[in-house]
Amino acid sequence: MMRAVVLKDIGKLEFEDRPIPKASGNKVLIKVAYCGICGSDLSAYRTLSFPPGTVMGHEFSGWVEAIGENVTNCKIGQRVAIRPCSVCFKCPWCNEDRISLCPDHIVDTIGLKNNDGAYADFTLVDDFMVFPLDDSTSLSEAAVLEPLAASIHAVQEGNIKEGDNVLISGAGSIGLLMFQYLKMLKPGRIVVWERSPFRRSKVEELGGATVVSTQEEVEEIVKEFPRKGFDVVLEAAGAKQCVQASVKLVAKGGVVVWMGQMHEPLEVDQFALTISGIKINCSIGYFVEHWDIGMKLLQEGKVNLKMMVTDEYPLERIDDAFQALFNPEKDMKIMLKVHDEN
Ligand SMILES: [Zn+2]
Ligand SMILES: [Zn+2]
């Protein structure tokens, strides 16, 4: 038997004893090492955006515990990262490797709805989701690969050219991962807009950006720019004020990327948008290429993933971990440690 944490109701997670799943066919059983808590899990905890009965947890790493008879890409005992996004291999988007646009994505991805996630001792995944790690990559960093891939995708949707002035709104874990990848593209000026002093200090720790706390400060900065706006705005806050501001702070002809998710309707001034000639690109999850870039950056040690992880809790204390994340002044990414590295 194994432990699984089940979302029962709003604000209610419960431990259940469940049989350990069996790996057959193309399935791989993963013994979970680390699992990060995602913002989407937090919102499910608050609003039941995943149905009761869900075992959440989609940002994880671990060891191969058992493999089905058709599995050839990994071996028992190997340390692995998991790309949890489901792939149907049949739809037009999967055929283009744009896997997060697959109609099955939100329902069949590990830890979202139908397939139990990694807030458990073990979880069953498909073989194509399993990515063996080299010795230099730690399992705790490998658990940050999933949000890193999503952040790389969002930055790429900005079509950033060298020298572009770029705004990142929101410096939670996604904003910080975007920031690290963005710097590799040699933009011009980077401005990060974030209300929380703790999160601003994280950006300052990485260095290389002007960090501000209010929209007024951002508006002052753009006055100096030749086009009076940013070439690219990367919106990662998902707060109404920031989403509305994103289309005002971008220069004419610039690109806005919406990555942060907002759960209320937005009123737009269609005329103002149209005459500004801006492009709004929406970014969800990651495609195969973004995962591969993330994997490469991780193995080459080019991204600092340790600084994102502000705390580590054993799985037993998952409730405390969720509570801690409601305080943006204290925590950013919390890692649940399910099994020890040795
Ligand atoms: Zn996530
Ligand atoms: Zn598909």
List keywords for this structure.
342 residues; alpha/beta; Quinone Oxidoreductase, Chain A, domain 1; Rossmann fold; 2 domains; six-stranded parallel β-sheet; 12 helices; 15 strands; binds zinc ion
The biggest beta sheet reads: 7 strands, mixed
Helix run count: 12
What is the C-alpha radius of gyration, as a whole number of Å?
20 Å
CATH H level, superfamily name of the largest domain: Medium-chain alcohol dehydrogenases, catalytic domain
Strand proportion, as a percent range, falls in 25-35%
- The average pLDDT value, as a whole number, equals 96
Separation, N- and C-terminal Cα atoms: 21 Å
| Helix content, binned percent | 25-40%
Q: Would you list the SSEs in sequence order as H and E?
A: EEEHEEHHEEHHEHEHEHEHEHEHEHE
Q: What's the architecture of the largest domain, going by CATH?
A: Alpha-Beta Complex
Molecular shape: globular
Structural class from helices and strands?
alpha/beta
CATH class of the largest domain, named Alpha Beta
Protein architecture, described:
The radius of gyration is 20 Å and the shape is globular. Helix 5 crosses helix 6 (173-184) and helix 5 packs across helix 11. It is an alpha/beta fold. It is 29% helix and 25% strand. The mean pLDDT is 96. The chain has two domains: 2-144 and 305-337, Medium-chain alcohol dehydrogenases, catalytic domain (Quinone Oxidoreductase, Chain A, domain 1, Alpha-Beta Complex); 150-282, Rossmann fold. The longest helix is centred in the middle third of the chain and has 12 residues, at 145-156. Bound molecules: zinc ion (ZN) (2 copies).
